[in-house]
Amino acid sequence: MKPVTLTIGELAARSGVAPSALRFYEERGLIHSTRTSGNQRRYERSELRRVSFIRIAQQIGVSLERIRDALKELPEGRTPTKADWTRLSAHWRSELDDRIALMQRLRDTLDGCIGCGCLSLQSCRLYNPGDELAAQGAGPRKLLG
Amino acid sequence: MKPVTLTIGELAARSGVAPSALRFYEERGLIHSTRTSGNQRRYERSELRRVSFIRIAQQIGVSLERIRDALKELPEGRTPTKADWTRLSAHWRSELDDRIALMQRLRDTLDGCIGCGCLSLQSCRLYNPGDELAAQGAGPRKLLG
DNA sequence: CTGCAAGTTAAAGTGCACTTGAACTCAAGT
DNA sequence: ACTTGAGTTCAAGTGCACTTTAACTTGCAG
Q1: Phi/psi of residue B133, nearest 5 degrees
Q2: Does any CB of chain A come closer than 8 Å to the CB of residue B135?
Q3: For residue B63, with 0-12 CB atoms within 10 Å meaning exposed, 13-18 middle and 19 or more buried, which class applies?
Q4: Is B94 helix (H, G, I), strand (E, B) or coil?
Q5: How many whole angstroms separate alpha carbon A138 and alpha carbon A134?
Q6: Chain B residues touching A11 at Cβ < 8 A
Q7: Residue A34: CA count within 13 A, CB half-sphere
Q8: Cβ contact B113:B125 at 8 Å
Q9: Closest nucleotide over all strands to B66 (CA to C1')
Q10: Would you give per-residue pLDDT tens digits along chain A (145 residues)?
């Protein structure tokens, strides 16, 4: 009968993340393991969920540092419940909404520019949305931030 | 009366991109300059449009290498016309559509998972959309690609 | 003509997210 | 017992997109 914990290879296979990346995540405090008497890592099955969460957050465009901070919200000591994950998921949901909104703003403005070919900074809404920054010479900074 | 060309500092100020970045773009073949007798760079005003294009494409998530390849489509010798830029803009517009679609897919599936807290690989649609890859053990690879 | 901000180069450094390599140990099948 | 695949550590390497540094030159205002 198989033990409930996973080796690093098993976790890698199930999550689609390389063992080297898992060690790296652990070093950075994003995931945790216990060790066997022979010093090998063993992962709780719940770590799989953590890895999943990390990959989703990366898709959304969040850095490992910010992901680590978010994961610190999870309870120490006990396995996170459905409610714990739901709360974090909801947090990324709004991150994602923000990014989608940014992309759509970019697209809509690009649509406006396609007809005129006006990709220059002086007058193009793409760089100076609302033109309030037009005189300050800051360029794309606003959209980029 | 001011000459029509821009110094690197002027281009930097107008585009919101650091001089060091502009030199880097030039080294990588994304933009071009002529030199004064004293070896200083001078930029055509049309280079401003190139820089704008580069920043937009980066926002969309395109690498400098792919941006350079796209810019190679622009005519050599003559200043790009409205039509030239329109063609390239349309190309990025579809890139952007793709990314927005990916984000929305991610969001919709995350919505489905928020209620159940099921961020695990075995059954979650977020990792195995349509479940066709579920047996292959590839994990997030499909959405990540 | 002088002073100084702005420009030049090549090489090295930065931050992020990992990967690779070397040298070694562990676990499991025959 | 032996072999082999999987695991371990630490250090160094990779790729991208720049930035910084050092030593030096230009160009313009006064």
Answers
A1: -100, 0
A2: no
A3: exposed
A4: helix
A5: 8
A6: none
A7: 9
A8: yes
A9: D16
A10: 567 899 999 999 999 999 999 999 999 999 999 999 999 999 999 899 899 889 988 888 889 999 999 999 888 778 888 778 878 888 778 888 888 888 888 787 776 665 555 554 444 555 443 333 323 333 333 333 3
